[in-house]
Design a protein that fits this description.
alpha+beta, Serine Threonine Protein Phosphatase 5, Tetratricopeptide repeat, two-stranded antiparallel sheet, 7 helices, 6 strands
Length: 201
């Protein structure tokens, strides 16, 4: 399938794995078009999911205030609750970390990458739940097409404490995407060189 290929996704349901969080395809609850290479799924805290060809986000806590709304695609309501919690948490890093991670996920889920970048970066700088924060920021980079930055974050996530299992899957997918782009670039260079040789003949 080509680099710009599109995949049509229909509205999906929420799958509940008792005691282990939820899995939701991030499609804003509507039929939509997304790029296959940046397809993203949301994995509830503690949930192990095989999601081929999809980058995986993970919430900080399946029972955290606002996560249920996020996983149901009610992004505005979820973000309102997370913002409220962030204001209540003060400056304590341990209290802010899960809220920052969940806000990061909320904005990535909506494709609002610029708005989410501050939360994603602050979650990483916070230093708590670092593996989770790096994984989610890596997905943000992947959605923006910044695959080298995504690879760096996924590698750092794997080396950090609190690493979600999905970081390894995300790393493999990002590395594969980098290799595909490198191959496509090399093929374009080779084609251009052949055309130049032909013109000079």
């Amino acid at each position: 399938m080509g680099e710009s290929a599109l995949l049509t996704l229909a509205k999906i349901s929420v799958y509940v794995a008792e005691g282990r969080g939820r899995l939701v395809m991030l499609n804003a609850m509507e039929t939509c078009l997304v790029r296959l290479d940046t397809l993203v799924v949301l994995v509830g805290a503690g949930t192990a999911v095989q999601a081929a060809e999809a980058f995986q986000l993970q919430t900080a806590d399946a029972d955290f205030y606002g996560v249920t709304e996020l996983e149901a695609g009610q992004y505005d309501r979820g973000s309102e609750r997370f913002e409220l919690m962030l204001n209540l948490m003060g400056t304590a890093p341990s209290l802010r970390a899960p809220v920052l991670n969940n806000l990061c996920v909320t904005y990535i889920a909506q494709g609002r990458l610029e708005e989410g970048a501050d939360y994603c970066n602050e979650a990483v700088a916070n230093g708590r739940e670092l593996g989770l924060a790096l994984n989610n920021r890596g997905v943000m980079h992947a959605r923006a097409g910044l695959y080298d930055a995504a690879v760096a974050d996924f590698e750092a996530a794997i080396a950090a404490r609190g690493t979600p299992d999905v970081a390894r899957d995300n790393l493999r997918l990002a590395q594969r995407r980098v290799a595909q782009l490198d191959q496509a670039r090399d093929e374009r260079v080779a084609d251009n060189e052949q055309r130049l040789d032909g013109d000079g003949a």
